[in-house]
Amino acid sequence: MPAAVNWHDRAAALAFDGRILINGQRRSSASGESFDKHSPIDGRLLGAVARGGAADVDDAVASARAAFDDGRWAGKPPAVRKRLMLRWADKILAAKDELALLETLDMGKPIQYSLAVDVPSAARCIAWYAEAVDKVYDEIAPTGSNALALIVREPMGVVGAIVPWNYPMIMAAWKLGPAIAAGNSVVLKPSEKSPYTAMRLAELAVEAGIPPGVFNVVPGYGHEAGEALALHMDVDAIGFTGSTRTGRRMLEYSGRSNLKRVYNELGGKSAFVVFDDFADLGRAARTVAGSMFFNQGESCNAPSRILVHGSIADEFTALLAAETPKYPPGDPLEPGTELGALVDETQLRTVLGYIQAGRDEGAQLVVGGRQVRQDSGGFYVEPTVFAGVANGMKIAREEIFGPVTAVIPFADEAEAIRLANNSSYGLQASVWSDNINRAHRVARALRAGTVHVNQYDEDDITVPFGGYKQSGNGRDKSLHAFDKYTELKTTWVRIDKA
Questions:
Q1: pTM higher than 0.70
Q2: Is it the case that residue 1 has pLDDT exceeding 70?
């Protein structure tokens, strides 16, 4: 049996390169400025990250545009793009330990999940779009006999991708996979809170043979590098994942610049609806805990509103409270840790503020609610459950992005649907019922991009991810993602009679 990996020793030996990557080359920011990146695990300094600005975005976009215009990538046959992207996916898997450690140190998630979820998911996404790109056919319209109308997909050109800090590799791969497979060039702006894996992914792409300039990375702050990318007149589309507040800005930036396409995948406040005809409440409670506390609750699809029939609300709350201690905050570098550190002190204060708001508004704090492990130098909060929550309370309305969930009782099916839909968000939902008619009926009534039935978080690259309402208009994953990063062109050919 191989010896267990000591991730603390690996972390001490890891090199951090925070420089920009443009046209396949590392470089400092044009201004020479950088910012220090500390780990939320214990406050250790990871390194200096280039503070990209408008000049760096200009260079990256120019590099991407040149790569697109000269056809070094878009001009390659789909089968060639597939082969090089599959090589890229293999290199991601080969670098699994390094990438997982970078991810964990950067944003605080447990190493076991960086290894088992984040790296393999990113690699599978790249490989899946590689395999798909030479299997997507164009169309011939059913015109009359005197015409031939060809409908073809063409790459848009230069795509800007702006991704969040909670799943840095996975969210980047969801943009990169379809955009690059389709023949576009990309400029990626990772979150300043978790930038390191983005630069490494780009290096691996170049090593795999993807031409320089096709994938560029400019780290920096959202109001500097992100804004410059979204306002850039030579960027054809923006794929954005983040907060609804910033998503609104993306749309404004499009209007102020070149009306570039904007695809927003935004926040959520997902409803987890449990009816009294579902027999295995223990399984439902275990599923809530596993989904809600995964990634420290820093997931846009986390089941943070648990709607439970009033007759079983107390029983379900007790079952959930019994599950919660199985997720004690711990050192993310220890292999058995289930719940890691929040990404930074700002997020810690935000989560604690919501917990206090729940108390102030009269919700019952059942379990958790405290900051812990202060002596570590990191940012940790206990998994927290509130009961007796009204749907109008702040903790039921606003996205917390931490390990905090709320149990909301309902009286009947109609009220369950009304409460679940009474949210500005519509990302995901779940229905738990042993009545197949009710399960289908309620699933159809819920206004959400994904509705799970008697499970939560089961997922695959083959199905789209995105939401209704203020959860955005973007759909990542599946073949539908190609719709975001391609233009439809019709070529109408007249056929004269003999």
A1: yes
A2: no
Closest CA to 355 of 311, 305, 416, 405: 405
- Grouping H, G, I as helix, E, B as strand and the rest as coil, residue 44 is coil
Please state the rounded mean pLDDT for residues 295-310. 98
Among candidate residues 125, 192, 224, 300, the one labeled active-site is: 300
Residues 479 and 278: their CA atoms lie apart, in Å, by 34
Q: Is 153:222 a contact under the CB 8 Å cutoff? A: no
pLDDT value for 497: 87
Euclidean distance between CA atoms 194 and 191, whole angstroms: 5
Of the candidates 224, 265, 298, 399, the residue annotated as catalytic is 265
CA distances for 180 relative to 203, 221, 386, 400, angstroms? 15, 24, 44, 33
Concatenated DSSP letters for 235-267? --EEEEES-HHHHHHHHHHHHHTT--EEEEE--
Length of the chain measured in residues? 498
Query: What is the pLDDT, as a whole number, of residue 474?
Result: 83
> According to the model, what pLDDT value does residue 12 have?
95
Q: Residues of the chain with pLDDT > 70: what percent?
A: 99
Q: Is 382 a catalytic residue?
A: no
300 is catalytic: yes
Q: Where are the beta strands (DSSP E) in 411-497?
A: 425-426, 428-432, 450-453, 468-469, 486-494
